[in-house]
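> example.struct
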């Protein structure tokens, strides 16, 4: 390993420009002749559009165009789509309703875009939008997923607002396991709805070039090639080779910037309509209404145990709210990214899960950091913790009794876990958290009038989202491989072109570390290029903790080819047989001799074409690769949360956090630890603070940061973070994903700790002071006889 290679805690190369204000985001871009877009959005959750009068708006100074769904239809612009097919238990396909980029005839949620104004300046566009007159016939709305099937029908294609009724597992075998069980733990769980709130709001600039009849889209996207594919092949705005998508620096995504949104389609379309570049930047209030939300599950779950505390069965029924329309990947989140992880870290012989996905009059719901895995972990880890309490078994001990201990392990819900050591993570976490002295700390808290609790979350996730064969068989509309190209310049510096996209993960550092490690060159001599469909070969982007396991594996494959070619060049340069060339630490050596050549010597020699005259060797040193893994990666670990609760106010203070994760081979421990910290912060936010709330009329009542509580530094503890290592056998680097682990583990750990402190199980998320205080009061009341 070089000082900057694999395993080194190298400071992030990209941070200098970010912390000095020199990042280059979509909103920083201004195109010649640029105009500005402002969207008029529906104030109603459900309504028919009787008429739209745009005349007053169109006559205002500076207005270039006022466009509605009627013009969109006239130009034959297609609907947005969901790219993952799910079939119901009866074999019928999911009910995907039309989703136009501008509403046609009807609006289905507050924030649904109805019209767009394009003007010389943004203030002019905003003023004109206020002059558009829309005559609505307001219809009854439904926002609660538990009431969706009995609520007013939203789309003709979906009776009872049902998108699919899906199931996974063996129902008969699971029911039989429950029938013979010694004990059954039951829970009703609401996994609260979340707004993503990335630091950088979404933005788009559409530009049409009449000379080449082509479009360029600058966009805050996590996967520019997928955006180009969907907009060209399904929306039908332009042929793929006539559309360039550029994702410059992106200020966070958390999944919410994977999807194809109406605004980017409209910006492109409007740019051709007005003959000018069109820019739209979302403000924070608009983001609450228009960005895809996450989570929002209503679940009843049951776990069956035998007389030795072994789990013999798990039954889950979930209603998943997908909002008013299906988003790009929304169908897969509560199915194949959720139910397939319900085995957790445990050897559960029988699992059966039913998921009913429903439409409601709310903004669409799709992937948010963890995407299905946090929901699954919350179900399993709450059941195990409550089961331990009901059975009178120490929670770590109950987990130990049920851990999977041999690999590979085939779960009853599709997944084959390839490697892991769950006992090692638990053992190390218990030691770091000083679990044996928790009773002493609990007594000390009691002397100060506080309630102290401890909660566990031994999570697992499937990430490195791929392989294509697996996801294709489960309904994915595209393969989930990744691509890379490694270009060696004549001076020996290297350019890496990757189909992955960085929006906070540190790819410019970690990808360069891999190259530095393999080629023995300084990390400063490596540049990483991504995010531009005209520069980079087709790639699938970044989500599902896939950039390391899939994206870097593609780079490793390309580096294999580069090294093989470089050895051929070196053999010519050193006048030796190719088989005698060894490459190590940036130097080519003829085995058994003192003859050698540096990396820079060989790189230059590769471009001196006349040296190869008569040789079967092409000049140059550039190689590409595609990588499609054979399995997901399965990071796992143990998080332990310790809390104090003020019984007079219900306020929860996290006083300790231990995280021990198994991410396989770690490229950069500093960056990985940062990812864990960030994930925990978001998980704590869900557990204690965050909740996107719609009232019964479909109005978002948490539509600003005054009402939607985000975690602050004071809400978070100092973390104790450590790792165990089992190599992932399904990729050449042995790495597993790390970006979502904290958000997956944290909610269950927090709620398990709070319920342990209070002694009441039915505390909802978020466990606000009011919710906790009410639970404490209910505990103090005598129970009514049934």
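> example.seq
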């Amino acid at each position: 390993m070089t000082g900057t290679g694999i395993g080194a805690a190298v400071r992030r190369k990209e941070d200098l420009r970010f912390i000095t204000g020199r990042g280059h985001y979509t909103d920083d871009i201004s195109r010649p002749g640029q105009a500005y877009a402002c969207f008029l959005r529906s104030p109603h959750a459900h309504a028919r559009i009787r008429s739209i009068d745009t005349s007053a708006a169109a006559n205002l100074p500076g207005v270039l165009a006022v466009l509605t769904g009627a013009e969109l239809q006239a130009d034959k612009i297609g609907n947005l789509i969901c790219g993952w097919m799910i079939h119901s238990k009866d074999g019928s396909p999911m009910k995907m309703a039309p989703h136009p980029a501008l509403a046609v005839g009807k609006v289905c949620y507050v924030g649904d875009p109805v019209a767009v104004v394009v003007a010389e300046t943004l203030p002019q566009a905003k003023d004109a939008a206020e002059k558009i007159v829309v005559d609505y016939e307001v219809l009854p709305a439904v926002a609660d997923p538990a009431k969706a099937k009995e609520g007013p029908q939203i789309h003709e294609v979906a009776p009872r607002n049902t998108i699919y009724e899906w199931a996974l597992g063996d129902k008969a075998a699971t029911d039989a396991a429950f029938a013979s069980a010694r004990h059954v733990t039951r829970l009703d769980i609401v996994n609260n709805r979340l707004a993503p709130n990335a630091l950088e709001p979404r933005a788009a600039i559409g530009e049409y070039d009449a000379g080449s009849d082509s479009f360029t889209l600058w966009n805050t996207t996590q996967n520019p090639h997928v955006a180009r594919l969907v907009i060209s092949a399904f929306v039908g705005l332009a042929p793929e080779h006539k559309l360039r998508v550029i994702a410059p620096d992106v200020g966070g995504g958390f999944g919410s910037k994977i999807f194809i949104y109406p605004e980017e389609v409209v910006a492109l379309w409007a740019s051709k309509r007005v003959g000018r570049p069109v820019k739209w930047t979302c403000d924070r209030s608009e983001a609450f209404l228009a960005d895809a939300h996450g989570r929002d599950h209503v679940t009843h779950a049951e776990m069956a145990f035998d007389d030795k505390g072994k789990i013999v069965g798990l039954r889950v029924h979930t209603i998943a709210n997908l909002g008013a329309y299906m988003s790009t990947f929304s169908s897969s989140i509560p199915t194949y990214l959720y139910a397939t992880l319900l085995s957790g870290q445990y050897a559960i012989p029988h699992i059966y899960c039913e998921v009913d996905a429903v439409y409601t009059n709310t903004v669409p719901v799709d992937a948010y950091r963890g995407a299905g895995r946090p929901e699954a972990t919350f179900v399993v880890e709450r059941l195990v913790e409550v089961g331990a309490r009901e059975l009178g078994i120490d929670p770590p001990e109950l987990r130990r009794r049920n851990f999977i201990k041999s690999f590979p392990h085939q779960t009853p819900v599709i997944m084959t876990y390839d490697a892991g050591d769950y006992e090692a993570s638990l053992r190390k976490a218990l030691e770091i958290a000083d679990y044996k002295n928790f009773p002493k700390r609990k007594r000390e808290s009691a002397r100060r009038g506080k309630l102290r609790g401890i909660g566990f979350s031994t999570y697992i996730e499937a990430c490195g989202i791929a392989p294509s064969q697996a996801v294709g068989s489960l309904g994915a509309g595209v393969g989930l491989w990744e691509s890379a190209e490694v270009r060696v310049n004549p001076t020996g510096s290297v350019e890496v072109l990757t189909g992955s996209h960085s929006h906070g993960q540190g790819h410019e550092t970690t990808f360069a570390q891999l190259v530095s490690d393999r080629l023995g060159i300084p990390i400063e001599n490596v540049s990483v290029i991504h995010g531009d469909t005209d520069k980079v070969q087709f790639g699938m982007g970044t989500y599902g903790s896939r950039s390391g396991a899939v994206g870097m594996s593609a780079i490793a494959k390309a580096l294999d080819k580069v090294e093989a070619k470089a050895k051929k060049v070196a053999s010519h340069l050193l006048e030796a047989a190719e088989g005698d060339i060894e490459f190590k630490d940036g130097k080519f050596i003829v085995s058994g001799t003192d003859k050698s050549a540096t990396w820079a010597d060989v790189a230059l020699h590769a471009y001196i074409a006349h040296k190869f005259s008569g040789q079967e060797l092409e000049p140059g040193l550039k190689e590409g690769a595609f990588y499609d893994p054979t399995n997901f990666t399965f990071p796992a670990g143990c998080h332990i949360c310790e809390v104090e609760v003020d019984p007079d106010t219900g306020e929860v203070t996290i006083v300790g956090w231990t995280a021990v994760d198994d991410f396989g081979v770690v490229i950069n421990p500093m960056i990985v630890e940062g990812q864990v910290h960030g994930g925990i912060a978001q998980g704590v936010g869900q557990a204690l603070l965050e909740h996107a709330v719609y009232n019964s009329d479909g109005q978002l009542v948490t539509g600003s940061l005054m009402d939607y509580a985000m975690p602050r530094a004071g809400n978070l503890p100092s973390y104790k973070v450590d790792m165990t290592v089992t190599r992932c056998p399904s990729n050449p680097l042995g790495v597993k994903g790390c970006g979502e682990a904290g958000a997956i583990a944290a909610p269950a750990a927090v709620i398990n700790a709070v319920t342990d402190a209070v002694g009441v199980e039915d505390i909802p998320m978020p466990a606000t002071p009011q919710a906790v205080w009410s639970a404490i009061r209910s505990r103090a009341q005598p129970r009514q006889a049934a």
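> remarks
The longest strand covers residues 311-321.
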